[in-house]
């Protein structure tokens, strides 16, 4: 029952995000706005516990969510044959770019934390 409540919370937050995004002409997609609303709502145990139960269920069945993607790839093998190298290059480059940005952000945050720690010691 907790998992269904969690799923309901997820769907409500996504729907609210869609409404806000479209109603206010925000430059962000509705699911992104809904994720931000969910992030704020997770401070409450009434939301956090059911969503955690739903997330555990979804993560335990994550491999099933890749079946439609695999079927899609198999039905479009000709496109993969035509654009496969380009797709692979985009995936590799975007992964490396994401990793580089994460490393830079982590370094900036760790320097900031070190400076704060030094300031508290003095």
How would you describe the overall organization of this protein?
- The protein has 122 residues and is an all-alpha fold.
- The chain has two domains: 1-60; 66-122.
- The chain is 85% helix and 0% strand.
- The protein contains five helices and no strands.
- The chain has helices at residues 2-23, 30-41, 45-60, 67-75, 77-121.
- Helix 1 crosses helix 3 (45-60).
- The longest helix is centred in the last third of the chain and has 45 residues, at 77-121.
Quick description:
This protein is mainly α and 122 residues long. The chain has five helices and no strands.
Provide key terms for this protein.
mainly alpha; 2 domains; 5 helices
Topology diagram in text:
Blueprint: H1 2-23, H2 30-41, H3 45-60, H4 67-75, H5 77-121
Helix pairs in contact: 1-2, 1-3
User: What does the largest sheet look like?
Assistant: none
Helix content: over 70%
Shape: extended
The helix/strand series, from N terminus to C terminus, equals HHHHH
Distance, first to last CA: 53 Å
Q: List segments where confidence is low: pLDDT < 50 over at least 5 consecutive residues.
A: none
The tally of helices reads: 5
Task: State the secondary-structure class.
Answer: mainly alpha
């Amino acid at each position: 029952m907790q998992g269904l409540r969690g799923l309901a919370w997820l769907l409500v937050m996504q729907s609210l995000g869609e409404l806000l995004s479209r109603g206010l002409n925000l430059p962000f997609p509705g699911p992104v706005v809904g994720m931000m609303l969910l992030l704020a709502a997770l401070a409450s145990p009434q939301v956090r516990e059911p969503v955690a139960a739903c997330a555990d269920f979804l993560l335990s069945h994550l491999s099933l969510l890749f079946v439609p993607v695999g079927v899609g790839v198999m039905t479009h093998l000709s496109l993969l044959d035509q654009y496969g190298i380009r797709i692979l290059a985009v995936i590799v480059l975007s992964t490396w770019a994401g990793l580089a940005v994460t490393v830079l952000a982590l370094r900036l945050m760790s320097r900031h934390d070190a400076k704060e720690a030094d300031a508290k010691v003095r």
